[in-house]
Amino acid sequence: MSTDHGIMKVATDLAFDLVDGGIMTLVFIDFEASSLRRGSFPIEVGVARIKWSEILTESALIRPAKQWDMSSWSPKSQEIHGIPLDLLESEGLPVQTVSEWLGTRINGKVVVSDAPGHDQRWLDMLLKAGGVEQKCRIAGLDALLSRFTGQAYEAALEMLRMLPQPHRAGPDAARLARAYAAAALKKQVMEGRP
User: Fold this and answer.
1) 59 by DSSP, 3-state: which?
2) β-sheet with 54-61: strand ranges across
3) What does the pLDDT look like over 41-96, one tens digit per residue?
4) Torsion sign, CA atoms 115, 117, 123, 126
5) Phi/psi of residue 78, each to 5°?
């Protein structure tokens, strides 16, 4: 294990410990993008959080920034997420607006994704284009769920299997939150806590 990877693992574990202790809050994030190629850009971002027993979900379409490489637009990716470029131009919000909005939702939170490599790249690209000077490291859903064992871990996996992945940022982020909530609830039941 590289030193950087080891430091990231310790930092992630510490962040999850703070969540377990009720000191920090989890936010689940998902992006849809122009493609998966190098140079691709974010076109939609969704966040979900758990408040009491409710999953609160928000999302925003992103109007492409002028400096983003439009040659990375993939018709194949559009088939998957169903978001045409003309919709982004007409209904997408400017990157500065989305960056500021997103910054208020993730600031001081532990941010989790099921594809942290891609989502980190798109988050950094969005915040930079929007002029937001915020640093945020996205943790992986696998790392979060690995803190559960037995039936609690299985409950999370079952929830992920049951819920379709619609490839829209808000519902995809909510899907991750539901998987975590299923594991946490099962753990509470197993420990005899209300």
Assistant:
1) strand
2) 54-61, 42-51, 26-33, 110-113, 139-140
3) 999 999 999 988 899 999 999 999 999 999 999 999 999 999 999 999 999 999 99
4) negative
5) -60, -40
Residue labelled with tokens 């997103």: 102
Reading the block at residue 73, the tokens are 């637009």
Would strands 26-33 and 110-113 be described as parallel, antiparallel, or unpaired? parallel
Sign of the CA dihedral with 29 first, then 32, 33, and 35 last:
positive
Indicate yes or no: pTM above 0.90. yes
3-state SS, residue 133: coil
- In this structure, are residues 135 and 124 in contact, taking their beta carbons and an 8 Å threshold? no
Question: Which residues is 54 bridged to in the sheet?
Answer: 51
Helices 169-190 & 150-162 angle (0-180, nearest 10): 150
> Alpha helices of 1-149 — where are they, by DSSP H?
3-20, 75-81, 85-91, 95-106, 116-129, 141-145
Reduce the secondary structure of 92-130 to three states and give it as a string. Answer: CECHHHHHHHHHHHHCCCEEEECCHHHHHHHHHHHHHHC
Handedness of CA 60, 64, 66, 67 (dihedral sign): positive
d(CA 32, CA 44): 5
**How far is it, in rounded angstroms, from Cα 95 to Cα 131?**
9
